[in-house]
Amino acid sequence: MRKASLVIFLALACISMPARAIKLEQSKDMFLNINLLLQFQAQLIQEGAPDQKSWGKEFFLRRVRLLLGGQVNKYISFFIDTDMPNWGKGNDWNKPTFFIQDAFLTFKVVDQFMVDAGLIIAPFSRHGYQSAVSLFGLEYHSDLIKYPTEATKVWRDAGAQIRGYIFKEQLQYRFSVMNGSKNDVLQKDINDKAVVLTNPKDYPRVTAHLRYNFLGTETDMFAKGIHFADKPIVSLGVSFDYQQDAGIDRLAEFEKTAAGKDTAIIAKDGKLGDYMGVSADLYAEVPFAGKDHEFILMADFYRYWQGKASAASGIGLFGEFGYRYKTFSPIFGIDWFKSDLPDKDLLVIHGGLVWWAVKHNANIKLDAAVKRQGDVLDSPFMTMITLQGQIYF
Length: 393
Known about the structure:
By secondary structure, this protein is mainly β.
């Protein structure tokens, strides 16, 4: 009962609170912005109850974030935010996971050349550096983002990035060098001892993104899923991501017992492989008939090579399409991944509705998804229905 009351209270808060942020200003070029993001979710999950037969019911806080950003002068700015995701999920309110999610400095020479350094989001595909605050649909298409094992914390990695906007801000580039994956476990033996570890020579990870805006401009560090635009925005991007020895080409093989079970004695060593990902994506937001109508389309293609023994090697696609009439948006989406290994595929189909009470500052999203994993032709669909309320101020 307490959980349900919390959800109802937060839902009412979402539609009643004004959009505000705190700004502490020392001068025109020295200031601090303080924002808060709060998202709660209520879920119905097929066979998600403890008996694994009944519908599971979840009430939890999806994201709780404190965001700090500002400038020291006109050349130096910074951004720091925290997160406490999925607090209360699985009825666990006693062990919240609280951490710093972003923490970076930006040195801006001109708009055409900037340097970011610190804990930054990897610039692999527009969706990969999209803001959780301004998503169009309920959530990220995270099943299609397959970075090297343990290379990131919520898609963030420590390193440096150069970026800029040229040709009247129509062409955007981002290039980063980051830690990536190193000494992370790809395989364990029967005693839970690591036998294959990534990147023993500590090679860096390099990521690049190039984007051209045919219509409109996009100059945000974190891309938006919807701008509530009064002019069309259409852009196309390509991305590349690479790290040596961050994948696995062959699993280690173990000596067997008389009964045919693995022992902890290695008969044949595992073999590392390189990680590489490429992506192409399209974003279009096309308003018409004034400011009350617009179509939004986002489509991404991914190809990953993470070694011959990795289920993350394969081809993926997702699409998200919706229409906004004033403050309401029906949204449809699909996620598909075909692994290079058998029976490791994915298919997810989404349908939802959004009420933009105060645009990104207060909204309520409803999403119904059906999901197949493994052999997507024969495995059963699993259903999940999610209601989310968001406050950002």
